[in-house]
Amino acid sequence: MYERDLREELSDSIPTRVTRDLTVNLPTGPVVVDDQAGAGGVLELPSHARASDITWVFGTLWAGVAIRLIPTPGQFSSLVKLTLQYMRFTDAGAGISDVVSSRCPRLKTLRMVGVRDVRELRLRSATLEDLTLNRVQDLVRLNVTAPNLSAISVMSSFYLNSSTVVSVDAPALKKVLWADQWPDQVDFGRSADGLKTLIAVHVLVDVPLWLGGGYANILRLLEYFKRVEVLELHLSINKDNNVNWHNILMERVKLPDHSELRLHMASNGHAFGISVSSLLKKCHNLRKFNLCLLDRKEDNACLPDCVCRQAPDLWGELSLDSLEELIVDNFLGMKTHADFLHSVLQSANMVRKVLITLPKHLELSRHLRDEIHSLCPLGIVEFRRNEW
User: Fold this and answer.
1) What is the DSSP letter of 314?
2) How far is the C-alpha of 31 from the C-alpha of 41, rounded, in Å?
3) 87-106 pLDDT, tens per residue?
4) What is the Cα–Cα distance from 154 to 110, expressed in whole angstroms?
5) What is the CA radius of gyration of the chain?
6) What is the model's pTM?
7) pLDDT attached to residue 174
């Protein structure tokens, strides 16, 4: 498809009178823009005064990389939500920064997914509330000034780059989701001390630990934020790697102060009790603990002599005197699961509610059910089945 053809298709796909929502999805197959010297064609991103929700999708992550867009002058005066997906920009991000900062007076939500050639984003908005950057893979510098921003999600955008910088001035910020390499320079201002929710996804980066990659990523992330209400961690033990690296992470990590911990654990056949116990020892004043186990019955167990299979009496003493509520999702009844649950319940003297969810077709033995009930005050344990 040549550049003039793509321009015509783009023009034909846009209604002449947009009153509310506008979605442009072009096309699903590979696009070859008429370009000489590999420069790529240029398409204009027209302004729409009436549309409140605009979604631009150009192909797939790799099919869309030949398309380059530039914003035209004009106001997006009614725009509340903008989604840009699978495209490239010609100006390293200056154009979209200007659109958001000076031409979208009502914008509340900005999502950029699979957008390339954006080296720098400088966003200044009095109305922006929710920002998502997912696979903005060339990003080096992010500067956000948004007094009403309440949530920011960053995924797979900085991990391939060096000398990265993030500055966020958002006094209303309540939620941060980070599934990416932690930048070299970070400034969240006052938000670092008062988040409601921090979601940290442990991303393995193929960079040596001492150079700031690998497990050091989540260490630096969790050390930065000092206080949150809810801490959500997504962790995994790689089946192909030495489990010692995971144990080292649990021993070295420093957690922000928090009252609720949501832990999503993919153990990949390993016993996780020793490492998660190390983590729980760093949780002071923990009132609610939600453990989501991502194991499957068919996962192959690690070797019997693996270092992860230490007996529970070697894990060290837990102190969970402030714990009031315990939720265990996807409890499979395996010995590794049962040992960990036993250790937690023995250490939680003030627990008032225990909820254990089971896979839809799993039947727990009567002996295991009775053992769990015996560790808790009468009537506080509930077993519930998942729908999946």
Assistant:
1) G
2) 11
3) 877 788 888 898 899 999 99
4) 12
5) 25
6) 0.86
7) 96
